[in-house]
Records
---
Amino acid sequence: MIDHVSVGVSNLERAGRFYQLALAPLGLSRLITRPAAVGFGKSYPEFWINLRTEMAQVAPDSGVHVCLRAKSPGEVDAFHAAALKAGGRSDGTPGLRPHDRVRYYAAFIVDPDGNRIEAVTFPEG
């Protein structure tokens, strides 16, 4: 249903380095670099960061977050660890999250601009 998503960043170089490291465990790499945008993906840009030089820090209560699919709990763990090492902060440690209709394994991070990013997988069993 969704072809791609983008988030605003205040510093494209810093965010580019952050996302290059954080998204690598999910199999996403930097595919396109433009003066004011960077596109990450597997075969085409699915996740974009766009320079917004006047952007304020994203408010913690904004309610906005982007969720990216992982192939396994190990990828979720690696995403979380890589994001923290690259300068992000945890917004939910990796773990199983059982809910009424679906059981999933996820981790949540906040990038240096305050964007909330999740990695999720749906383990069997």
---
Amino acid sequence: MDKAINFSAKFALFSEQWQPKVIAEMNDYQFKIARLQGDFIWHDHKDTDETFLVIEGTLRIDFRDGAVHIGPGELFVVPKGKEHKPFAEHEVKLMLIEPRGVPNTGHQGGERTAPNDVWI
């Protein structure tokens, strides 16, 4: 690839929420963008950390013992094995950074599980 990736242009290509789209890879890590709104499910990722980088909006990540709020231009790393539940009152645009093949619902599965490796 010999041109920069433009977040606005990539977000303009889709409108569905809770369906991460891969925009780049580095070694075995994927950079995914997603639109989120509303409540997600409690889940964890037993074998990997998960990085949330908010581009637009405010994301709350609930933990069993508290919550963290992440605003535009802020990043938060959820440690592997830590149960969490993202929530966005209004639509949030963000980037996820995680190893290739990690399901968005961790080992929980279910109807909220998005297909992996969807490039945009």
---
Amino acid sequence: MSQPSVSYRRADMRGVEALAILRRGFLLEVADARPDDTSILPRLRNWFKDKLANGDFSAILALAGDEVIASSGLVVHEHPPGIMIPNGREAYIMNMYTRPAWRGKGIATVIFRKLLDIAREKECTRVALHALPLGRAIYEKEGFVAGNKEMRLDL
């Protein structure tokens, strides 16, 4: 049986639950979270609700039918203007997560490019992220270079 086609949309309040669940899935894989511990879900729901509502967080969801199968988001940090970041606006991409059955299909790449578009909309002059080995090639293909602890792309 073939898999349904994938669609993408910007997250809004309807996506809060999916963002919380996918973030927890991400933490289970990379942060040694315990599968039986769901105590983080209420905190995640509150954070996503607050940050989506006030615009501090933007996210892209990938859907197969009605099921959210992948997501990632970004926050914008404002620093004093400097040489490398003339307007002081830097986006930080975080929590790139695709459900295991959907990996290797280019979904994360599409989400990532849409997040870069959002960073440009928000007039960020730099984008940073921490790259796990599985995603490093996606970021490098888009021009990111490795730094001390994170990868970055100057827009």
